[in-house]
Design brief:
Layout lengths: L1 E6 L4 H12 L4 E8 L3 H11 L3 E4 L2 H10 L6 E4 H9 L6 E4 L7 H9 L3 E4 L3 H17 L3 E3 L2 H10 L7 E8 L9 H4 L4 H4 L9 H9 L1 H14 L6 E5 L5 E7 L4 E5 L5 H9 L14 H4 L14 H11 L3 H17 L7 H12 L8 H14 L1
Parallel strand pairs: 1-2, 1-5, 2-3, 3-4, 5-6, 6-7, 8-9
Antiparallel strand pairs: 8-10, 10-11
Helix pairs in contact: 4-5, 5-6, 6-11, 6-15, 11-14, 14-15, 15-16, 15-17
């Protein structure tokens, strides 16, 4: 039985991870849970899964949790220190990370050093510090398994293959809700419209990233770091059906693709169950005869410049991806608050990137400082 620490348990990935664990209760046990501010849901999860430790961000909410969980064996911790404890719990074999933003970097590094198998859905650590994470994972003998549907697809296609055999990694994108809009119409996009993704149900930040195609820009960096290929070998294609989650083209001209319905429980289950492939009990099956056609098109980087900013940040390297990520988080937050328009998002990010002088071979401190600097100058 695998013992799991789940970081970000109340978000969409966390909730779906717990559904998978519950479906396969004979294979998994939760030993720690960590969440942001959703004390009600975290309390419900703690009562259902009875972990040894639960962590919440705020001290005041930790007090509420303690009182509600009095008399149980679950210990309540809080803040950054509590997050580190939950991420490295001594009983855990595996730590699943699904927290928004760069805040997951320190606990992820700590979990690697504690020799936990890492399953990650939050792409930011691999965007801003991918080379460092890969180096640490090799040093501590830790396996890293992606949960993102696109990177899970690539991982499955590459399982047992050599990097030297790759011609291209092709990441697919549904294109988001504004794929067919004219440039002028993007200036009037509302927050509500941007949050209405045509295929996936996700948190607010990643949904906006999908609408701007920054999600793909970040995924390009993540894929280059995760799979050890140059950014020039990574291509993005718009695939509105969102059935082919990604492809790998090999040097002999063959393509391998991973197909599935749009349900995050499938890549979550593959990651936490790896190397075993588990039965997706109760999930609908993919019926290709009902789909009939697949469509592909090139992304429009004139309408969605965030994708090209991702390539630019990776080509520059060093601390530039950290600056891109931090500036994007700030821009998305400003858009959600109504302070800037949808089309302002890439403009504000590019402005911050142009001000930055990248450190080429950054240590963890350099990366965190670049993250702080970008937020300050935004």
């Amino acid at each position: 039985m695998k013992k799991i620490a789940l970081i970000g348990s109340t978000g969409s990935i966390g909730v779906n991870t717990l559904k998978v664990i519950e479906t396969h209760a004979e294979k998994f046990r939760v030993v720690s849970l960590a969440a942001g501010n959703n004390v009600e849901l975290l309390l419900e999860q703690a009562r259902r899964f009875r972990p040894a430790v639960v962590c919440i961000r705020d001290r005041e909410k930790a007090v509420i949790l303690k009182s509600k969980l009095a008399g149980t064996r679950t210990r309540v911790v809080w803040g950054d220190e509590g997050l580190m404890e939950a991420s490295t719990h001594p009983q855990a074999d595996m730590t699943v990370f699904s927290v928004v933003g760069a805040q997951g970097l320190r606990p992820l590094v700590a979990a690697i050093k504690a020799r936990k198998t890492i399953c990650f859905a939050n792409k930011e650590p691999f965007v801003i510090a991918g080379e460092l994470i890969k180096r640490l994972a090799k040093e501590y003998g830790v396996r890293i398994l992606p949960i993102d549907s696109e990177h899970s697809a690539v991982f499955q296609c590459l399982d047992g293959k050599k990097t030297s055999e790759i011609r291209r990694i092709i990441l697919t994108s549904s294109g988001g809700p504004f794929r067919t809009l004219k440039m002028k119409a993007l200036e009037k996009v509302t927050v509500a419209a941007a949050l209405n993704h045509p295929r996936w149900k996700m948190g607010k930040k990643i949904t906006i990233d999908s609408a701007t195609l920054m999600n793909k820009g970040l995924e390009v960096i993540e894929a280059a770091n995760l799979f050890g290929v140059p950014v020039e070998k990574i291509k993005v294609l718009i695939h509105p059906e969102a059935i082919i989650h990604s492809l790998v083209e090999f040097i002999d001209g063959s393509h391998l693709a991973q197909l599935a319905i749009t349900d995050m429980r499938i890549p979550i289950q593959y990651a936490i169950g790896y190397p075993e492939r588990l039965d997706s009990n109760g999930l609908p099956r993919l019926e290709l005869s009902r789909i009939r056609q697949f469509h592909f098109e090139e992304p429009d980087t004139a309408k969605f410049p965030c994708l090209e900013l991702g390539y630019e940040a990776k080509r520059t390297g060093g601390t530039m991806p950290a600056v891109l990520n931090a500036a994007n988080e700030m821009a998305v937050g400003s858009f959600l608050e109504g302070k800037i328009s949808f089309v302002d998002i890439p403009l504000r990010i590019e402005k911050v990137m142009k001000k930055h002088r990248a450190v080429k071979k950054p240590a963890l401190g350099d990366i965190l400082e670049a993250d702080r600097w970008a937020r300050e100058v935004f």
